[in-house]
Amino acid sequence: xxGNLPVRYKHKTYLIRKKFFKIFGGAFHIFDxxxxxxxxxxMKAFKLKEDxxxxxxxDMKEELLCIKARQVxxxxxxxxxxxxKTGDKLGALKRKGLKSLLRDEWSILDGNDxxxxxxxxxxxxxxxxxx
Length: 131
Known about the structure:
Layout: E1 15-18, E2 26-31, E3 37-43, E4 51-55, E5 63-69, E6 78-82, E7 89-95, E8 105-109, E9 115-120, H1 124-130
């Protein structure tokens, strides 16, 4: 199944950086293990039901993934990840509720909502600054 995917999807680890001084909305750069830009996302501010897109670069011309919250407000929110071209569900991301209040922690789910990986914020100090 993963044999036909472009290399940007095949890494075991990624580094996600968020623009620190962005007041409204958010911009995320997602880097592969070599430091190359794998994905880029710019979120709109003040949306009750989160919906953001991952692009191939900062020009945002090629949309690669669509990520939408299942519910409006939820401390243990689940976000469906879909292919923007076909609308097919590829998997999901589930926030680990109270564990994520201070330091973000997420489960990566496959297309059947079975956990296949995790995402953890690596710095307690930066998590405190985010508050």
